[in-house]
Amino acid sequence: MAFNVFCGISLDNTKLYQSSLDLTRQLRSFVEMSSSLNTTKTLSDVLTGILNNAQDVIHANRASIFLYDIENAELSMFTTIGEGEEFGTVFAQEAIEKRTICNFSSEEVTLKLHVNAIKDTEDTLGEGSARRSDGLSRVTSVLGEGLSPFESNKSLQGAKANSKPNIVNFPLLTSDSRLLGVMELSCSWRIMPEDIKLLDCFAVFASVSLERSELQEIAKMGATEANMRHLINDEERKVSDIIPEKLKLEEDKIIIVNSINFDAPMFDGKGHFKVIFQIFHEFKLLEIFKITNEKFFRFITEISETYNKVPYHNWRHAVDVTQFINYELHITKLYEKLTNQELLGLLVASICHDANHDGFTNVYNEKAETPLGILFKNQSVMETHHCSVAISIISKEETNLFYTLDSDDYKAMWTMIIRLILSTDMAKHFNFLKETNELLDDHPLNLEDPSERFIAMDLILKCADISNVSRPFEMANKWCDVLCEEFFRQGDLETTHGMEYTSPLNDRAHLDKPKSQIGFYTFVCLPLYQTASRALPPLQANVDQVQSNLETWKAAMESK
What we know:
The chain is α+β, with helices and mostly antiparallel strands and about 550 residues long. Helices cover about 60% and strands about 5% of the residues.
């Protein structure tokens, strides 16, 4: 009996001793990783060290880190150590989609690979969906019987001997939960829950290292330079005649950019830069004016950063307006009549036309006596401010798109851009329409006359500025909600300051959406688009859509 007790105590002591050794080894790993974060090692060295320590914990065959490109929703291998089978991003992708730890047993790995193989084979052979369904059903039924899919197929009997590893994936997240990548480990035995908890700590170290590297890069080079390094290589920076590979749009999206069906929110992020690059390259403006990709990228970055995070008058709106001008230039073929300088000026004006908009109207800025309202009193408050912001950016050497122009052309360019931006002030709207219609009553628009070409540019910029009303109704309605939210935001502030509403549209509690849109379409939008179509007949297509949307609003009003 005493011997049994002694043996039991010895076994317990052995376990405790082994546990203490494991804990010591784990603590040593954490100390090493903590120290590595404070050294001047490269990111690759730090992550490799983390993978080595993680690999030791479960004696993994392979340990890898994948980086996630959030703009393109793509994973790519950054570094890997060890040996064994590689399965690409098959399992790491699931950790990205679920944003949580994904632990696959050997059987689950086998199933997932087999299901993917069936899909890939049928896609290659062009099999129908019914055949694919049969294949997946077969796999599912086999698993229900407790067998691997390979065991159900005599031609694959030998595959059982080559059992797949167990795989665990950890999503790597920033402090604000942005996805950075995935840490993946594979081993030949089951990965225990206590091991996963420990490995999760290593994943945190990897996340911190990646985020710290990003911040160091930004601090060292500036955010613009850091972003450019990821999107434009050294050769692409210096040229003007090609779009950088990572800023190219797919063919199907180019078609959308040239159409009325463009939906700006679908291109958010890097997609907006791609749209702007595509439009300028479409008309060869960078090549003609010797604007390098680097200079243009810096310009887009700086001007986009001036746009505030307001509901409507933001960078998304600027891209939306620029795209609509591109669409109008194509359907009217106006680009064939405009000079290259006019074309450049029009598109730059569209990009800059609401720069640093605060989300409040001119009337509010004047009545509330905001700094801008005081500075530009009795002027087009916001439009004048947009011009000054554009001037401050384009006047800098690294973002000067007009550096090749001589003195006279430079002056003419700025005169045109300033006039175009100032013309978007709605206070000038009705007088502009009156004068333009009087000219059109006298004669058709003469595009050989520079002053009348300016009228054409003015018209399409003003149409583009309210282009939402001429897009398909679903888009028009969505944009209406966004604009209403900006009006409500102003109305809330007016109420807080004890002011009367500067517009009934600002009253969050009592807005009649269909009624307000009927008035806006009838008195503002339709007359503008009808005038534009008189000057440029192909724009009648936009008039038809505005009228169609107006009828939809009227029907909504009647059904209330």
